[in-house]
Amino acid sequence: MIGALLRPVEALGAAILGFLTLLGGVTRMAIEGWIMAVAPPYRLGLFFKQMDFVGVGSIVIISITGFFTGAVFTLQSNLAFRNFGAEGFTGATVALALTRELSPVLTGLMVTGRAGSAMAAEIGTMRVTEQIDALEVMAVNPVQYLVSPRLVASVIMLPALTMTYNVIGMAGAWLVGVGYLGIDDSVFWTRIWLYVDPDDIIVGLIKAACFGFVIAAVSCHRGFHAGGGAEGVGQATTRAVVISSVSILISDYFITSLLEYGLLAGG
Amino acid sequence: MAEARNPAGLAGPEEDTIIKMVGLKKSFGPHTVLRGVDLDVPRGRVTCIIGRSGEGKSVLIKHVLGLIEPDAGDVLVDGESMIHCSQRERRRRLRRFGMLFQNGALFDSMSAFDNVAFPLRESGQKMSRKELAERVEAKLEQVGLQGVGAKYPGQLSGGQRKRVGLARAIALDPEILLYDEPTTGLDPVRTHAVDEMILNTARDLNITSVVITHDMQAVHEIADVVAMLYGGVIHVRCDAATLRDHPSEVVQSFLHGRPMADASTGQLVQD
Hints:
The structure holds 2 protein chains of 2 kinds.
Chain A: H1 2-37, H2 44-54, H3 59-82, H4 90-128, H5 131-137, H6 142-180, H7 185-195, H8 198-224, H9 229-261
Chain B: E1 17-28, E2 31-42, E3 46-50, H1 57-64, E4 72-77, E5 80-81, H2 87-94, E6 97-100, H3 112-122, H4 129-142, H5 158-169, E7 176-180, H6 188-205, E8 208-212, H7 216-222, E9 225-230, E10 233-238, H8 240-244, H9 249-255, E11 260-261, E12 268-269
Parallel strand pairs in B: 3-8, 3-9, 6-7, 7-8
Antiparallel strand pairs in B: 1-2, 1-4, 4-5, 9-10, 11-12
Helix pairs in contact in B: 3-4, 3-5, 4-5
């Protein structure tokens, strides 16, 4: 009877313990990855390869999603502003939404799906086929070899991709707003110039760098701890995507609070 | 089996021991794999570790390299611990080792050439491209695989992958070579070829070899010393000829493929 009553408490305890273990493991790996990134031996080729994979390889998907995000957001905003006869604010609204929220968050989610999953699957396969053990036996630090380049590449390339998202997103907004909905071209750009500050763009880029860190740390950690053959690699990949995506959305709130209000509590 | 430390794995006073495993214990959750392994590995000779599948032979060999941390016990290589040392120190000590993994563990993203060149490049030794290419080709030739350098692991057969794995393992001329089931999954012709390769590598390069296997034919062909892992301890350690007539029921059951009692439950199991 008491056992049955305690079972939910046990389950809650196990879940909290599991979460803290995961958080500790990811943090530890990320810290080691950063430290080893600046320690010799330097393997610049690995860093460039990852920057190419995470950044250059994501440009097409980021451009497509950016264009249509800007376009559809313009359609929706224009509908709302038309009620007040304030269609001229559409461009500035879309620009603010893109630079501060939509670009970094959607870029983070897209890169999680494309590059984060690949990181977890590749490292997970290396784990179950003993390639990581082989690195160890050859006296190579696997965190330095596998995690450091992915961490650094993601932190650098996410802001670059977010900036691309901003630009292409605004191109989509301009085409739909000015070309299709008939908003005056000069009004469209003047309002953007008036209401969007460089700080808005910088906040978005800082967020993007944080998301890059989260994606690489979580995905590499999940891959490193994959087990049980092909099924284990599949699970590691799924978890990497789910945990990274949720972490991006949760950390977005806290980063926004910290950057905008100076306090985590949002005071 | 409360305290199952078994001294069967220790060498006689005349042997020159290079690797010494002392009281190794390891459990994974509720499953106890090693219950106190003591084993001396003699220098410059071929030691085969035999035992049924799932006895923990691969776990044992990973302890030797410090890839798995034991719950208790130590592994000493010429008196230096592979367990109780810093990561940096362990990596320095690992330079004395080479290992052939069960399926080769070749890097999928690299050609056979780059796989063999990997430890040479990572060792920090200064050498020109020409020197590197010569050394890689020499190692590939040593395992009978000249001319396959451009191929990727996916384009190689199981036997070729193992041989490229061996070429990589001996690239830095290690003192100690560990083999994890080198002939599993190979046909009899390739099995014999790999056994010959192990023997030749050990003899020609004067390398200490530790081979995990359950292939008794291979044991009789290559082993100087045989150690049998059973119930999480070294049940027997002797030379190959002695093993054949060993009075232990467990050894005879293993040699003749008869069901053996599970050391922890006492129930008969068929491997």
